Amino acid sequence: MQAEPEHDVVVIGSGAGGGMAAYVLTKAGVKVLMLEAGRNYDPLTETPMLHTNHQAPLRGAGTKDKVFGYYDATVDGGWEVPGEPYSRGEGSEFYWYRSRMLGGRTNHWARNSFRMGPYDFKPRSRDGLGVDWPVTYEDIAPYYDKTEALVGVYGRNDGLENHPNSGPGVLHDPPKARIPELLIQAAATDMGIPCVPARRAVMTRDLDQRKACYYASACGRGCAIGAAFQTTTSFLPWARATGNLTITTDAMVHEIEMGEDGKAKGVWYIEKKSGEHKFVPARIVILAASAGETARIMLNSKNAQAPDGVGNSSGQVGRNLMDTVGASMGARIPAFENRPRYNEDGAMGIHMYIPFWLYPEQAAGKLDFPRGYHYEMGGGFSQPDMGVGGYGDMAGGYGAKLKEEARRYYGSYVWFAQRGEMIPNEHCYAEIDPELKDNYGIPVLKFHYKHTEHELNQVAHFQKTTLELIDRMGGEVPTNVPSPKDAIAPGGWIIHEVGTARMGDDPGSSVTNEFGQSWDVDNLFLMDGAIFASKAHKNPTLTIMALAWRNTDYLVEQMQQGAL
Amino acid sequence: MVLHKKIDRRTTIKWVMSGVAASAMTACGDRKETKAALDDGIIPARPISKHRASLGQAADISGTPYGTDPDLMQPANTWSRTMTEKQLAVTAALADMFVPEDEHSPSASAVGVPDFLDEWISAPYEGQQRDRAIILPGLTWIEQVSIGRFGKGFATISEAERASILDDVAVYGQEKEELKEGAAFIRRFRSLTMGAFFSTPEGMADIGYRGNQPTAGPYPGPSQEALDHLEAHLRSIGLKMPSLG
Fold first, then answer.
1. Strand A284-287 relative to strand A9-12, pairing
2. In this predicted model, what pLDDT tens digit does every residue of A14-34 receive, in sequence order?
3. CA distance A254 to A299
4. Less packed terminus of chain A by CB within 10 Å, N or C?
5. Does the pLDDT of residue A3 top 80, yes or no?
6. Which parts pass through the membrane (chain A) (predicted)?
């Protein structure tokens, strides 16, 4: 057995939050040990950048082993992880997506990177629901700028309400809109709905050792050239280069060891390959294991002083679970049949999007749902896969005529996805299942989840608006629109779960202070989506990183002052 | 997004109802598939001729799923093909009826679609096994139809004879009552064949996929021709072309 290296801080998790924390700490000269539950992973050698579906088993189609398709970067993960079950309360539908790999879910995410705005940090002040954050947009804005500049984000400053601009020179130029996006933009503009360049953590110019996007290869595979952001091509190699970072993979952390002085002493983990239980001491512990796993570790860390779990004197650990409100619709555009071909891959993900636009109506009480949503949308000449078979279901028939129909329908569809804000409610939480354990013997999470009228009415608004958009575009308006209850994605389906250890001003109703520092345990910090006090419709990863940077700056300052 | 139409459960149940005949069980060569089809709620068609179609018994599913951490750089199959030569021959003949050679691209069988369909239905995954329970009995069914009409198997009848069968079962709105039980099979087989064909290099070239080409510098965006085409549509519905800045 190797001796554990000298380190001051143990970081649990290597994704967006843990990666940022390790980067900032090691740059400041702090010795860090990072523990990752998954295997080591190197995108430089493991990313099938230009492989075609033809080369993959089953033409790359998704299976239970690889739910987003054969080439998706996710290792040993998905909504089901072998040997690591979870349970659900009666009547609850919740799906927990995990990756077991260095870099976590940053290796395959969509890279959509929208800033939260001033309203998003003070939602209760605006509509009386949920809670306000203990920070304002102005507190976080400099960190958004720094994070975007470091990560590399394309987009444009449009100065829209509650959609703040980035600082000068921060954003990379957005890629040009493609034909389906231009049609949607034309219709939206006509209807008074903004449609502007999306913001994604994809570089369109070279930055440090990473190369600009070359407009091929789906970002979900990971990005060997570093254009699409993931911690495994950025934070982690940069932190390692300082000489201050040690990474231990296959290390499944399950408990924080507490001292009698009320401070964390270190963490216990199971070395997955040997099954051995190991303890590593630490001056500071940072949990960045994902909202679910962070809450699980805290709740599983029980002792005489903290019978309900470490850092849980408020009883809020595991509560306030939120995911993005999701629904989707598609339509065929007859005028797009046989449209002229060109390379429509672009940056693979969205180039354009529709930000929430109804703030004045919302403020005036004219909407029957309290919070906003945005559209992600597109369509186009994507690389053919088994889905092309669907054209046969459209066309019927056989022979040369059928081949002609396939050419006709290819690229004639558009899709719209709703990404909306959910309000935390008492029915949405995770707790420790009293009986079920995973294959390592660690008690698992049991999820409870229920949407309310707030979310369902928002879905109904999205559906109505989308039908109008499709009609205005000259599309075939779908007639079989499901009810909002059937259309809304189940919890966890959008993979934006947050809120399980929220920050706040009051130790009685929150788990951490504004810096992700546990109210109960001052050398325990949280740096993932667990600390979100609300779940704006904006995708969470950028905010996780900006908060982690701010939290880590504070931590370094406290260490330097000798407070920690 | 909207293209992946699953086989409608009700359709398959209807197929079952129309196909129920005890003799069908023994008439079909693939008892194991028949059992699987029964389990899945799909029963192969009753024989419509006293001659019994037999394509032989497909091998059992063998091998393992590729697992949650396969080598993405060097993809490899982890299971064996299972179709018999006769099943493959019917598969090839039928696939080529859906995707024949034309001036744009080769036929389905010329680019390995039958072998791929064998890979597909032999895969140890739930979705693929559902397809297996549709495809294998379906192959026997169409063989039976061929024998009933022409006294010969589907792989050996002429193209015109095959076309006469497909005219009666594969064209929406024109399905003959006595062949309706095969409609779900035909639909699924067609869908798999098209997906398999158009994702080959030849199929991608045919359908006009121009991507997967690394491009230096800014993304060039739509071609002028593509923009002109869009602009004509926008004009026709009274919309303005967005600024391309």
1. parallel
2. 999 999 999 999 999 999 999
3. 10
4. N
5. no
6. none
Q: Do A392 and B126 touch (CB under 8 A)?
A: no
- Secondary structure class of B229 (helix, strand, coil): helix
Residues in chain B: 245
| pTM recorded for the entire structure | 0.93
Question: Tokens representing B89?
Answer: 């021959």
B14 by Cβ neighbours in 10 Å (0-12 / 13-18 / 19+) ranks as: middle
Does the beta-carbon distance from B170 to A56 stay under 8 Å?
no
- The C-alpha atoms of residue A438 and residue A359 are separated, in whole angstroms, by 45
- The pLDDT, as a whole number, for residue B244 is 84
Helix B183-198 to helix B85-98 angle (10° resolution) is 80
Q: What is the pLDDT of residues B129-175, one digit of tens each?
A: 999 999 999 999 999 999 999 999 999 999 999 999 999 999 988 88
**Average pLDDT rounded to a whole number, residues A441-459:** 98
Amino acid at A114: F
Architecture of the domain spanning A1-115+229-324+424-451+494-563 = 3-Layer(bba) Sandwich (3.50)
CA separation for the pair B49, B142 (Å, rounded): 12
Q: Would you place residue A6 in the very low, low, confident or very high pLDDT band (cuts 50, 70, 90)? A: confident
Residue B73 in this model has a pLDDT that exceeds 50: yes
Given pLDDT bands bounded at 50, 70 and 90, which one contains residue B50?
Answer: low
B237 CB neighbours in chain A (<8 A) are 472-474
The mean of the pLDDT values for chain A is 97
Distance from CA of B131 to the nearest CA of A (A): 13
Q: How far is Cα A78 from Cα A86, in angstroms, rounded to an integer?
A: 13
Chain B residues within 8 A of A53 when measuring between CB atoms: 199
Domain boundaries, chain A: 1-115+229-324+424-451+494-563
CA A363 to chain centre: 28
